[in-house]
Design brief:
The model has no long low-confidence stretch (mean pLDDT about 95). The chain is built from eight helices and 15 strands. By secondary structure, it is an alpha/beta fold. Helices cover about 25% and strands about 25% of the residues. The N and C termini lie far apart (about 55 Å).
Length: about 280
């Protein structure tokens, strides 16, 4: 199958590599432009660009996806595959591949359409998460699904740990599903949609007086990004891990501002002020 692949972050690398390993012909990889480094000069390519070039695949890095409409149309691809690309695809680009596009989405649609489905599932205390291979339509994550796989969210599992499992689960599901997609009508999503907007730093501020389960979800959902935090004795303290003991939240790994991560006990030993918990 001739495929145009659209993806950007590290999570989109395993699906790309698996599609190539499965024998599909990736005729173009479209990814976000190289980004300037936060310090110093130069730019950094996206993880998908790095992986695509290592595989010897042609790469396009448009500022806006509409810039590659003609290039994609000329390739006469069978299918487009989208995994965390980071841009909305305009109608002209959707029409450039008559066979359509599929998206690997990390949620049990229609729950958690949008940018941060894994973190929102953890924040909400969902019992399970999942992956869906869905048709791409103009409305955000509203296309029908070709395949879905569910998995429980483990006690204490962070968003990063859950996402890693979902990437693996989704990669295998995508490879199994691709040969069945062209010409097939997907199943309509069933249920009331919920939305997963981008995360903000402010919403991960911790309140030591909050219920332990609320704190636990914030810490787990914020690991690894953006990190749950509070200001204690004038210093910002991030909390990376902890556990619930009865009605009490017990931090186990923290990071004072401008210092490395450490155990909560080590931080307390060097901290003379009051304890936040």
């Amino acid at each position: 199958m001739r495929i145009v692949y659209l993806g950007t972050p590290a999570d989109a690398v395993p699906p790309l590599e698996a599609i190539v390993a499965a024998g599909h012909e990736v005729v173009l990889v479209v990814t976000q432009p190289d980004r300037r480094r936060s310090r110093g000069e130069g730019t950094t390519p996206s993880p998908v660009r790095t992986a695509a070039e290592a595989l010897g695949l042609p790469v396009a890095t448009p500022e806006r996806s509409r810039e590659v409409v003609d290039e994609v149309a000329a390739l006469e691809a069978d299918l487009g595959v989208v995994v965390a690309f980071g841009q909305i695809l305009p109608t002209a680009l959707l029409d450039a591949i008559p066979g359509g596009y599929v998206n690997l989405h990390f949620s049990l649609l229609p729950r958690w359409r949008g940018a941060a489905p894994v973190e929102r599932a953890v924040l909400a205390g969902d019992a399970e998460a999942g992956v869906a291979v869905m048709a791409v339509v103009p409305e955000l994550d509203a296309g029908g699904t070709f395949s879905v796989e569910r998995t429980p969210i483990a006690d204490g599992e962070t968003a990063g740990e859950l996402r890693a499992r979902l990437v693996d689960l989704g990669t295998r599901l995508l490879v199994r599903t691709l040969p069945t997609v062209v010409g097939r009508v997907p199943d309509e999503q069933q249920g009331e949609p919920t939305y997963a907007p981008k995360l903000t730093v402010a919403e991960f501020e911790l309140d030591p007086a909050a219920p332990a389960r609320v704190t636990d979800r914030l810490v787990r959902a914020g690991n690894p990004r953006p990190g749950a935090w509070l200001v204690h004795d004038g210093v910002r303290l991030k909390v990376w891990r902890g556990r619930v003991e009865g009605e009490r939240y017990v931090p186990t790994e923290v990071q004072p501002e401008n210092r490395p991560r450490m155990t909560y006990e080590a931080w307390l030993a060097g901290h003379r002020g009051a304890r936040p918990w």
